Amino acid sequence: MNKKTKSIPVNSMADERSPGIVMERVSFDHSIINEEEKQSHRHDLHSFFLLEKGTVSIEIDFQKYEIKESSVIYIHPDQVHYTTSTENITVSTWALNSEYLNPEYLKLLDEIRPVKPLLLDQETFSLISEAVSLSLKYYARKNEKLYHSLLKDSCNTLVALVISQYLEHNQPLEKLSRFEIVTKVFKQILEQKYITVKRPSEYAQVLNISTPYLNECIKNTTGYSVSYHIQQRIVLEAKRLLYHSDQSVKEIATALGYDDYPYFSRLFTKVTGMTPLAFRNKNRD
Asked: Which UniProt keywords apply (predicted)?
């Protein structure tokens, strides 16, 4: 079981050569996991991983994945994750802060998340792997006069290649129905505002549509109401904090925008079928 801390650790990936960008390619012939990676944590950068060889088992926000060779995965700074096992791996990593990311790419990353590991076809995998190799060469040439510009541009090219693959596997926006478009935008707004905005009517107001119509759109595409999605997002963050930190239930309620601690506790119990403390105790040794 992971060690608990007062709050979920945010592991710094900073590099003194270029504080906003980190790159590396590592290989292990046997299972070696950095102690930090074994513990639940967030990263302070937008992280991309290209698994070039072997397999990796990872848990991201309570979802377990086995990542196979020739796969790529994007992890947003908000996502809590930890590595459970590795086997004979070669993995390339590049990570950027929001400031270094092309604004258009940053917007697209917010739109497509959360994403699952994506298995690439051989041609695409080879293209991205070669691009990573070139970027790593730039990364090593820290004395170049245009070092930061070259590194920023090359890493953004890698980000664009990954985003394009995720978009290719998603349904194009122009092919979405009106209901699906509303649902997509609602989920983006929910991700940004779930701590401060709790009522369906407030989301409808942001979208400039009526509350009944918003509910109709969401129910049509997901099978669930707007309230359900709001509650699920709040409870996911509550679970993260209960499981990965030692904050009290009252502290967690406050962090999630609830001054009325008993109300938050009732909401959590209604959604999960157990109290916050029962959830915490169940998931601890």
From this structure: DNA-binding, Transcription, Transcription regulation
**Within the chain, where are the H helices?**
35-38, 103-112, 122-140, 147-169, 178-193, 200-207, 211-222, 226-244, 249-255, 261-272, 276-282
Which residue is it, tokens 């925008």?
257
Burial of 272 (0-12, 13-18, 19+ CB in 10 A): middle
Q: Coil, strand, or helix at residue 58?
A: strand
Cα 10 to its chain centre, rounded Å, is 13
Instruction: Report residue 120 CA to chain centroid gap.
Output: 19
Nearest-5° Cα angle at 51, 154 to 237? 90
Q: Give which of 86, 81, 16 is closest to 51, Cα–Cα.
A: 86
Architecture of domain 175-282: Orthogonal Bundle (1.10)
CA 78 to CA 41: how far, in whole Å? 10
Contacting residues for 263 by C-beta, under 8 A, at least 6 apart:
none
- Domains of the chain, residue spans: 10-169, 175-282
Architecture of domain 10-169: Sandwich (2.60)
Q: What is the pLDDT of residues 241-275, one digit of tens each?
A: 988 788 999 999 999 999 998 999 999 999 999 99
Question: Model-level pTM?
Answer: 0.65
Separation between Cα atoms, residue 239 and residue 255, nearest integer Å: 13
